[in-house]
Specification:
There is one protein chain. By secondary structure, this protein is α/β, with parallel strands linked by helices. Helices cover 38% and strands 20% of the residues. The protein has ten helices and 13 strands. The strands form three sheets. It has a five-stranded parallel β-sheet with strand order 11-10-12-1-13, with helices on both faces. It has a four-stranded parallel β-sheet with strand order 3-2-4-5. A four-stranded parallel β-sheet has the order 7-6-8-9, sandwiched between helices. β4, α3 and β5 form a beta-alpha-beta unit. α8 packs parallel to α9. The radius of gyration is 21 Å and the shape is flat.
């Protein structure tokens, strides 16, 4: 089996994830002291397992970190939760991504204008960024993920509406949903809040996919941004798409008949997961190309 594959230039950790991981690892602490993370530091099983080896552990409640060092993840939390953490934990490392903080500021500025708030994001399953943003707005916000959700918004046509979006949402779909909201409510004001790194990943996938017949997305299915990459490749671009955590989930028969494969990884996918997939593809007869001029 002979084929070529290209690893996306944008594949892997975003700077916000790097910042959170470096913050956890760089914390000066006693030899026996652990760091506890409220929820997964990143939504990737491999990355979380790697952190466990460095004495950085996930907890599901703040009480588990009483009198310990507690880290707030890049996804952010509500002011109420962060205040609670500071009362319970001995030390709090707030590693909320600055892009998420920008989202919170944008949402609050629209609310302070007297607008009724809409947050475009994953409504179908819990996500800490959504929960944190809802908390920032004191629950005075409607989360929409689909056009059906837009139709159900309980506002009057003349109401002033403020719209922001989850930082890792599908950017094209976000713009379509904003248009649908604006059609229903003429006094709609939208502030773009998609992360630049996420936007660049999605743009690279859309721009280069016409030159490939198969797409492999490396990431955890709990990761919103990786899930959106797989959805874009499969549903929007109509590519044969495989969504794998790492090389252990990749099967040779997945790429049977493929000639050109585009490989991309989510913003929470660690380097070792990417390397494992690349090595497997090479082992099955694939040739990695580094210059797109070879095929475009």
């Amino acid at each position: 089996m002979r084929f070529v594959f290209y690893l996306a230039a944008t594949a892997g950790f975003c700077w916000g994830v790097k910042r959170a991981i470096q913050g956890a690892k760089g914390k000066e602490r006693k030899v026996e002291e652990s760091i506890y993370v409220l929820g997964d530091l990143v939504h990737n099983r491999d990355a979380v397992n790697d952190l466990e080896q460095e004495d950085i552990h996930v907890v599901r409640s703040m009480e588990e970190a009483r009198d310990k060092t507690l880290l707030i993840t890049a996804h952010g939390r509500s002011p109420k939760e962060i205040g609670q953490a500071k009362r319970i934990a001995r030390d709090v490392l707030d590693m909320t991504c600055p892009i998420v903080q920008d989202l919170h500021r944008a949402a609050l500025s629209l609310k302070q204008e007297g607008r009724k708030m809409v947050l475009i994001g994953m409504r179908s399953r819990p996500h800490p960024e959504i929960q944190g943003t809802v908390g920032v707005l004191d629950d005075a916000v409607h989360v929409v993920e689909t056009f059906e959700d837009v139709e159900r918004l309980p506002f009057n046509p003349d109401d002033a509406i403020g719209v922001v979006a989850q930082t890792t949402f599908n950017e094209n779909r976000m713009h379509e949903i904003v248009k649908a909201i604006a059609l229903r409510f003429k006094h709609t004001k939208f502030i773009p809040t998609i992360c630049d790194d996420i936007s660049e990943k999605q743009e690279e996938l859309r721009r280069l996919s016409p030159h490939f017949d198969t797409v492999i997305v490396i990431g955890d299915k709990k990761s919103a941004n990786a899930t959106h990459l797989a959805e874009i490749a499969r549903e929007e671009l109509e590519k044969s798409t495989y969504f794998v955590l790492n090389e252990t989930e990749l099967r040779e028969n997945f790429i049977q008949g493929a000639e050109r494969i585009f490989v991309i990884a989510g913003a929470s996918t660690p380097p070792r997961s990417i390397t494992g997939v690349v090595d497997s593809l090479c082992g099955w007869g694939g040739r990695q190309i580094f210059d797109l001029a070879d095929i475009i």
